[in-house]
Amino acid sequence: MMFPSFKRPALFALSASTAVMAQMTTSDFSPNNAVSDTPSAQITSVSSSASIGTVLLHGTPTTYSVQYTLPAAIDVGANLLPNIEDPEAKVAQTVCPGYRASNVEHTQHGFTASLSLAGASCNVYGTDIEDLNITIAYQSSHRLSVNISPAFVTAENSSHYILPSGIVYKPEQGVPDEPTEDIDLQFVWSNDPTFSFAVLRKSTGDVIFSTEGTVLVYEDQFIEFVSALPENYNLYGMGENLHGIRLGDNYTTTFYAADNGNPIDRNLYGVHPMYVDTRYYEKDPVNGTLSLLTGDTDTDTNASYISYSHGVYLRNAHGMEALMQNGNITWRALGGSIDLYFFDGPTQAEVTKQYQLGAVGLPAMQQYWAFGYHQCRWGYKNWTMMQDVVDNFAKFEIPMETIWNDIDYMFQYRDFENDPNTFPYDQGKQFIDGLHANGQHYVTIVDSAIYIPNPDNETDAYSVYSRGHELDVFMKNADGSEYIGAVWPGFTVFPDWHAENASQWWTESLMNWYQNVQVDGIWIDMSEVSSFCVGSCGTGQLHMNPVHPPFDLPGEPGSVDYNYPEGFNVTNSTEYAIASSKSAIQVAANSATMTSTTTQPYLRTTPTAGVRNVDHPPYVINNQLGDLAVHAVAPNATHSDGVEEYDVHNLFGLEILNATYNALTQTIRGKRPFIIGRSTFAGAGQYAGHWGGDNYATWESMLFSIPQALDMALFGIPMFGADTCGFSGNSDEELCNRWMQLSAFFPFYRNHNTLDDNSQEPYIWGSVIDASKRAMAIRYSLLPYMYTLFHMAHTTGSTVMRAMAWEFPHDPSLIAANRQFMLGPSLLITPVLIPLATTVNGVFPGIKEGTVWYDWYNQTAVSVAPGANITLNAPLGHINVHIRGGSVLPQQEAALTTTASRNSSWSVITALSAEGTATGSLYIDDGESIIQNSTLFVDFTAENNRLYASARGLWQEKNALANVTVLGVQNAPSNVTLNGQALSGFNYNFTTKVLKVTGLQNATSSGAWANDWVLQW
């Protein structure tokens, strides 16, 4: 969680007597020279004693302890622009010599070779590494690896960091007798005029990756290589960012974990250097030859197309960027190696499976309750308020599975310690026990920084820090002292996951706290890792702790949020006028106190042989915050193994999720850990889900949540959801109405917003109550379907949320479609994403090939021409949901909790294809255990007016089957039988073509799937 106003200077100090600010360099401010050339602010000696202040929060006087406010300049780095925008930046491709290959030696599954500089060193953004090794390996029947790394450790590259397999899994050669010759990829290389290589798809002859005509640049702080791409290419992935699902020309994606809200087209919280490249071919109707489709993406509905997809993964954790330009993609990294993996597909679904199964790991299986509705807010101030929220959900009969606490519950924002005044342990036990008795759950936030006590205050004890200090688990400065940044509690230290005892300390801390607070899961935040100052700003200043962040918190004077979504001025004109007036007054007041800033010139550093400048590297990636140290632990922070943060910044999020997963398995034994994390890296899905971060209460944020979720599906993190109704800014009835319905079809479903903004629980507005209950009824009835999808993702690497282009891979008209999406293979969701709308446009893919789509609500088949973009009715409170013909969907009754839903009777929806067939599956287990004693798989097949259900496994499902609904039955049945026994409880609608069979409980009293059955009509 990060309040987005941190970017502007602090507009006030909470205590005028302590608001002494003076501009000077960080080298003066911090004795450890954390970032030596960065303007920051001096903290003068101030008293640590606090007085009492008062602030109006929504008109209510609220008292608080006054702290020293860190100056805004403390989180400002060098005023430089990345070299991608520097008009005087050297172009490495024009001044560097490249390499030449020699000493080629064939291996069982590929070959190795030496690469040597082909000319004089260019040393353009670092020191050239003269000798490299390249290893080519056909690792499996679908995976090819290309690894280029330094051949020798020398004085020039002794600090060159190569990512170890112990931190991030490194794919290895497959089983020796695996038929790697079946791979549809071929590696070729040339020394003309310098070393280049290409990867071809054998079945089509298409070149899917080629560095021909470019040079390889490999320096200790700068690596660059370029690959050609076809005209008008279709790339997906390359996260994390907010962008349309299709990545086009003239776009740069940056791989540097950043805590900075949710800006469009800039680097966000996680790093996933992987893309899927889909290429469409038009098939000649006469001879069947294929021609690559390029240029205009408009397609002919009469033409026949086919697509091939492949994947590319660069296993490198350094700061990187990829420039997607017309006809090529340029990769740039600030260190590491070129560790490339190619996956041959040939569909997106297969690429995603190959990537997860062979490269980063399969996603964690979630507990069943995790798919219920979650409610959170930064601003639930005590247990009483929490209970009121729970009671209100029950009062309005809105499902609520889990209630969450943001940092409010903490004592002075300290991890693993409750505030004894507002969240005492005894009251908490009573509250949590009540939740558990009702089949509900409790999750809390845990931040990534640890408060370091004030040495001048004997009462300022904090055992979590003291135990960590004792075990030596925190990051260091170069002189061996602890690196001290600033986060919510004040000055803080940061766990060093390379330290021998770090995981032990983290587990101990969680287990000790769990004795008092029986949480059901953990929410990891601030894990980029974030810090509110540049460098070790707390060194020598701990006598002031706890200090206030260098920006205004929500609701503090000058920081009241008057933002509302688009359309609010129409639907709530009076409130909008009042908010606009107050906003204008606040802006004017703030402007009067803001100090002007002057633009500094580019900071260009010169490479020095054998010396790495990690604070200001000669090449600076296009990081949204500029200086790599801004709002983050500085690159020169040191880990226990001597590795600098420069080399592993992007891995903190992955490592804390891993540590938390292991801690939860020991704390809540036997149950699958439930973890939602903010910062992720390739492979994080093995441990946790992810939420979309600090979004906004805007229609734009709601729209972008869809491509963000689809990207996460590609990356192997299917458990994803956005802060429904928006985190920052005041939501309104219309936006929250639409968003609560949209998020009901995301795997992770949570409403969450910030401290001072208006409450946005779904019971706040009458229409949102109705809209939420309507969408939730669909979601909860389909929990068996969603749980089965997750089991498939966990075991095979398939996706849960899917882009239409992935599910219908031979339709090029869908390449950029991300306003609609699929939930699994069977459900098409078409949300309203703009204000003041009562209709929505949508397409129905596959119609040309005979796909049938059924409206969820009236269960009739949609009549639409192939390729047509039709207008659907979508009054407020209605979200369009359609079932794909050929699907069988198992259901249970919707209820207020997943526990109640799981204990209800079963039903089945069978949506017949045009041929009268359908298939589906169901997975059942106990919903929580890591190791299952028994499971059940049910297969469904419909054909020839019969629906077959057959089960395998030892799980004893006691709930009976109540009814079966069959859509698309063209002729009225004269009778219906179950295993040959005639049934009287059926009804056929001649208009809708729907057959409903009810009253099956007696025939299945031993359990819906206890015996195989055939329903015939």
TrEMBL record:
Gene3D superfamilies: Glycosidases (3.20.20.80), glycosyl hydrolase (family 31) (2.60.40.1760), Golgi alpha-mannosidase II (2.60.40.1180). It catalyses: Hydrolysis of terminal, non-reducing (1->4)-linked alpha-D-glucose residues with release of alpha-D-glucose. Residues 797-889 form the Glycosyl hydrolase family 31 C-terminal domain. Transmembrane segments: none annotated. Pfam families: Glyco_hydro_31_2nd (PF01055), Glyco_hydro_31_3rd (PF21365). GO terms for molecular function: alpha-1,4-glucosidase activity; carbohydrate binding. Residues 1-22 form the signal peptide. Keywords: Glycoprotein, Glycosidase, Hydrolase, Signal. Belongs to the glycosyl hydrolase 31 family. This is alpha-glucosidase. The lineage of its organism: Eukaryota, Fungi, Dikarya, Ascomycota, Pezizomycotina.
